[in-house]
Amino acid sequence: MNKKKLIPILILGFLSIAAVQVPDLTNLATVASDDKFYIIDKSDLTDGANGTGKRIDWSVLKADAQSGMQAADADLTTYAGITPSANVQSLLGAADYSAIRTLLATQMSITHDASGYRLSGDAGSPGNSKYYGTDGSGTKGFYAVPSGTISGLTTNTIPKATSASTIGDSSIVDNGTTITIGAGTDAQMSGSASASLSADSGVTNHVNVVAATTTINNTLDVAQGKITSEIKEFCKTLETPTDADDNIPFFLPKNNITVTGVYGMTQGGTSIAGTISDGTNAFEAVTFDADGQADDGSITNATFTANERMEIDFAAPTGTVNWITWCIRYKNT
User: Fold this and answer.
1) Considering Cα of 243, then 245, then 246, then 250, what sign does the dihedral take?
2) Which residues, other chains included, contact 132 with Cβ-Cβ below 8 Å and sequence gap of 6+?
3) Where does the pLDDT of residue 227 fall: very low under 50, low under 70, confident under 90, or very high at 90 and above?
4) What long-range pairs does 191-198 form, CB within 8 A, spacing at least 24?
5) Structural domain boundaries in the chain
6) Cross-strand bridge partners of residue 132
7) What is the pTM of this model?
């Protein structure tokens, strides 16, 4: 029997050392299923039934080895392709949760303790109406929402920013009935059902603000879609009026109106009398002259309904009147 080199081989799944009678390990690729593997006791190299050598078929050895191996897992292939960083290795090697939390460290307002992660200065039950932030010392936590009063303001006076960081009184006062603008009551709006805008004698250069004795009412009549109490004016001019110029129609209101004033002026001559009516009931007689004569403040029969024609009669001219301009002041009702 030829002596062959005995090559010890560690076979996965066994704790035994096998001796293979092959000249080179590469020959394992050509081992047949019925080829024999031998295990020889080092004190007795006798082969055969009378010796201590043991043999096993290759097919049996391979089957036994495979039965003790776990099938390949796809996750292992994935993990094999990942080289963990030093930080990840530290986390995987941490002893417990506390060690992991320490490794993760505190970020901004987030910290941790034995209970887990929480806000710095956190509280389990901070209470109602609290905000999370800092106090006057910069300590983070939950604090009561600030409350308080503003001092230094005047009752009923609307506040305004007196600077970029302060609030003070404006010149607008609202007492629930009257809104007054300006320390000298330059203009005020008052009333409940209607709103009136008036001004004192100290007001100058205010658009639509008139003398203290006059009130501009701006009440909206929603049903009629009109301003019911705004004072309006309407004027007409006639050339060379005479005593014979009677019942001249000059105005046809589209809404119900009330005439509040009459005035006019002549050019040439001295004066001429004019009486305004609805054709039947006269409501005002005025002697117009070059000075701009107005009514005497007492107007009768001043109410006109929609589409009720307004007329004027001239009489008793003094001198030759070249032109007459007359006007009515009225409001919708």
Assistant:
1) negative
2) 119, 121, 126, 140, 141, 142
3) low
4) 191/217, 193/219, 194/218, 194/219, 194/229, 195/219
5) 7-67, 157-218, 232-332
6) 142
7) 0.36
Indicate whether 48 pLDDT > 70.
no
Amino acid identity at 73: D
Nearest in space to 239 (alpha carbons), one of 274, 266, 279, 263? 266
What SS3 state is found at 294?
strand
Residue 286: closest CA among 298, 268, 278? 298
Mean pLDDT of 190-200: 41
Separation CA 190–CA 193 (nearest Å): 10
Say whether pLDDT at 262 is over 50: yes
Burial tier of 264 (Cβ tally within 10 Å: 0-12, 13-18, 19+): buried
Q: Pull the structure tokens for residue 161.
A: 């920013």
- Give the span between the Cα atoms of 144 and 134, in whole angstroms: 11
In sign, the C-alpha dihedral spanning 284, 285, 290, 293 is negative
CATH 2.60.120.230 matches 232-332: yes
SS3 content of the chain, % helix, strand, coil (to 5): 10, 40, 50
Q: How far is CA 14 from the centre of its chain?
A: 75
DSSP track, 262-290: EEEEEESSSEEEEEEESSSSEEEEEEEET
Cβ–Cβ < 8 Å for 321, 266: yes
What torsion do the CA atoms of 104, 116, 112, 124 make, to the nearest 10 degrees? 160
Over residues 157-162, the mean pLDDT reads 90
Average pLDDT, the chain: 74
Closest Cα partner for 54 from 67, 65, 44, 66? 44
320 three-class SS: coil
- Total residue length of the chain: 333
Residue 76 belongs to what H/E stretch?
helix 74-80
pLDDT digits (tens, 9 = 90+) for 294-312: 876 778 888 999 999 999 9
202: which DSSP letter? T
φ/ψ of residue 123, rounded to 5: -140, 140
